[in-house]
Design a protein that fits this description.
Chains A, B: Keywords: Aminotransferase, Pyridoxal phosphate, Transferase. The structure is a homodimer. Helix content of chain A is 45%, strand content 15%. The first copy, chain A, is built from 14 helices and 14 strands. By secondary structure, the first copy, chain A, is α/β, with parallel strands linked by helices.
Chain lengths: 384, 384
């Protein structure tokens, strides 16, 4: 094993691109200096293109969960009836935050590994006209499911006045998110997923409708008060000391997106998903999710004849390839491969080659070259 | 002016040491990996030495204000009577957070530039036996005042059962903070001050007494719930994705502290304070604070015959030396020099030399070499 080489293929954090590392090495500057203002001024329009919104986006120092909590506290009041669509660990987290803030929480619980059935949401909303907000996870990182956000948005806005609040944490930047066109009211994401930065920034984009609700909201909050962030970002500033190094990195990430072209970024993620899935199909190892709801950023595998954690241990020991395990009820049952952010189809070929060796070593009867050939076929078709 | 050279002498963020920059370049790792656990395991005991506490310290991704808010929400309930000692912008911030959470806020307002008179606190507490918590700023960054924390702690604990909650943001790591010995119940700090890291981490250390109050507290909070951080840090983990790059940097900062010796770190800050103050005394330019309450980390100057912002502009334009202006009621009246974190007595000689030239250029009648000689005398005495 080459010392100092780690192949990080978990669903976030992802490896950091060298040019982003270099950008973050910028000497420290004052957070109230003109240079910080200029940095924010450069970031703003490029960031809006990623969310496909014309509205202002709050940039907070914090983990993604801080962004999810900001979504809850700024858009709801204690006692409000809300619907949380729970498709895994992060839907569960939304529900827990809503419960902590004493909302009247209704849940649609979906079997982990499946996307929500939009008909269930439609029927629920028809019977619950006073729902103030619907919370959903775009890409459920714990299962690799991509929920049908655009369709959900149509259904929610047709059948209710609820705000549609989306956890976009392992989606935005890797999966198209047409916030304004699709009518998403609030989209949250974090820095360490498809935005390929270290963890430490969270983003909250809100629609005109959402800002109206937020403006009227007066429940106690201070650090997560989105109005403060909006007022400040309008003049290229932040209410509290921002994570300056991460902002330098973010600006570089956004430049990389412009250079590659956002459409190409999304296609690259689609391609990596297909390559990964085809390999497991060739090996005849079950995937947790159907093709129709598989996320372009993370793939979950649910083996029926070997221990996923034994495989993870093997490839970690032999090649320093890091895969993620299952969480909570899926612990010990699945493993997850992250293919987002600073990750290319070539990296996926490497990942699959190593997993293939790991499978053989774990005693699984696969033929060397079989999974990788399936992935190569996809790639050959795409790049011809 | 040398391109790419900025002399950042504001009271935080401070320049980042090269070895800390290098540490933060560590390739990204998974936040649930063994390597992250090992990193936290290394950080914990060294961090406790800085706070001089045996209790666990919560490490949160966020600005210092997130830490201040965590102090308020975890230790109080709506309607609680609290006392906030307001000596400047950051005392005011504590008051605003307490008001946002509907506490019954009593204030002791101190003229900006002065430390609180401990007798006022004693008298207040004797007349208000139901005060649940007293909030104070250790170093008030907006004025350069160091409040008498140890004496305040004695008075508070002798005269009440209140928790003593300290904003240590531009003090901890630059000024001794004997948390356990002095009986401080909660100490908050941020990464970008004397800890010489980029902004993005905040720390909350709590005493046994404080943890007991926190455990019983059940007001709605999620991301800032200190109990979650305590439970996790006990097993070398964090409840939410930590700012991994900053943790690598923090570990290196703490190693630098061990190498220099914490006592020497504090002496260096004292020395830089003295050198700075003696220069201004030699120039006959008034300092905002008395010697007896001057912070070792930041010095405020209140000129009576020139415009502080004109001086700041001159040294910025000519030498890229960045000084801070006054905030709120002191805007346009003072300027502030940060001498903390990655800053040495040699750097202070440079800063003073440049300010001296700036003063001459601004039309102030000072003799070249006069201020710097005063600072040199202090340094010569110290290093002889």
């Amino acid at each position: 094993m080459l010392p100092d080489q780690q192949l990080l293929r978990i669903p976030g954090p992802t490896p950091i691109p060298p040019s982003v590392q270099r950008a973050m090495l910028h000497p420290m500057i004052g957070h109230r200096d003109q240079e910080t203002k200029e940095l924010l001024r450069k970031i703003k329009p490029k960031l809006k293109k990623v969310f496909e919104t014309k509205e202002e986006i709050a940039i907070l120092a914090g983990s993604g969960t801080a962004g999810l909590e900001a979504a809850v506290t700024n858009c709801t009041q204690p006692g409000d009836e809300v619907l949380v669509i729970v498709t895994g660990v992060f839907g569960e987290r939304f529900a827990k935050i809503c419960e902590a803030y004493q909302l009247n929480v209704h849940r649609i619980d979906v079997t982990w590994g499946k996307a929500v059935d939009t008909l269930d949401v439609e029927n629920f909303l028809k019977g619950h006209p006073s729902i103030k907000a619907v919370f959903v996870t775009y890409c459920e990182t714990s299962t690799g499911v991509l929920n049908p956000i655009q369709e959900l948005s149509n259904i929610i806005h047709t059948n209710s006045d609820a705000l549609f609040i989306v956890d976009g944490v392992s989606a935005v930047g890797g999966v198209q998110t047409k916030m304004d066109e699709w009518g998403l009211d609030l989209v949250v994401t974090g820095s360490q997923k498809a935005l390929m930065l270290p963890p430490g920034l969270t983003f909250v984009a809100a629609s005109k409708r959402a800002w109206e609700v937020i403006e009227k909201n007066n429940i106690p909050t201070f650090y997560l008060d989105l109005q403060k962030y909006r007022e400040n970002i309008l003049s290229d500033s932040t209410p509290f000391t921002p994570s300056i190094s991460l902002l330098f990195g973010l600006n570089q990430v956004l430049d990389m997106f412009e250079k590659e072209g956002l459409e190409n970024v999304y296609e690259r993620h689609q391609l990596m998903k297909l390559m990964t899935r085809e390999a497991f199909k060739a090996w005849n190892i079950p995937l947790l999710t159907r093709d129709s709801c598989a996320s372009p950023t993370v793939t979950s595998v649910i083996p029926n004849d070997f221990n996923p954690d034994a495989l993870r241990k093997t490839v970690k020991n032999d090649f320093n390839l890091v895969l993620a395990g299952g969480q909570q009820e899926l612990k010990g049952k699945i493993f997850r491969i992250g293919h987002m952010g600073y990750c290319s189809p070539s990296d996926i070929l490497q990942t699959i080659s190593l997993i293939e060796i790991g499978l053989v070593k774990t005693g699984k009867n696969v033929m060397l070259g079989s999974g990788i050939a399936a992935a190569q076929k996809i790639l050959t078709k795409e790049v011809k």
